[in-house]
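Structure (tokenized):
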């Protein structure tokens, strides 16, 4: 992959991320990182992940995921739990309300993703990238 292709990939990524964020905010008052954290927690065994695992899965650094976890916790969508084997280890655990919010937001996320990719497929520079994602 050369720099031109990498730049096109970055443009596609930015365009899709903006559409996802806008749709989630408009329809669910939920940020993209919040949605992704809830989705990863909902998929995890017992609905919980160590904070560092969650950070890695959603592409945030440790301090950013701590702030995110605090926002989700104060909204009642997650709770924190200490690791029984290592008191320094902190888990983020999705609540029933968090699962409900994520389940309601999922169709919006999926629809916005399809829409953003379809729009990008109409752009001559981005169309080959979109096509490669769909195969």
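Design, position by position:
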């Amino acid at each position: 992959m050369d720099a031109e292709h990498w730049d096109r990939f970055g443009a596609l990524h930015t365009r899709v991320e903006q559409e996802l964020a806008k749709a989630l905010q408009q329809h669910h008052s939920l940020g993209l990182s919040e949605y992704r954290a809830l989705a990863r927690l909902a998929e995890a065994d017992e609905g919980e992940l160590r904070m560092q695992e969650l950070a890695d899965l959603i592409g945030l650094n440790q301090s950013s995921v701590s702030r995110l976890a605090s926002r989700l916790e104060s909204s009642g969508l997650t709770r924190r739990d200490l690791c029984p084997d290592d008191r320094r280890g902190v888990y983020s655990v999705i609540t029933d309300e968090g699962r409900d919010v994520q389940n309601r937001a999922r169709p919006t996320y999926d629809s916005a993703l399809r829409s953003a990719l379809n729009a990008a497929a109409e752009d001559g520079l981005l169309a080959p990238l979109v096509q490669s994602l769909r195969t």
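Reviewer-requested clarification: The chain has a mean pLDDT of 94. The first strand starts at residue 48 and ends at 50.
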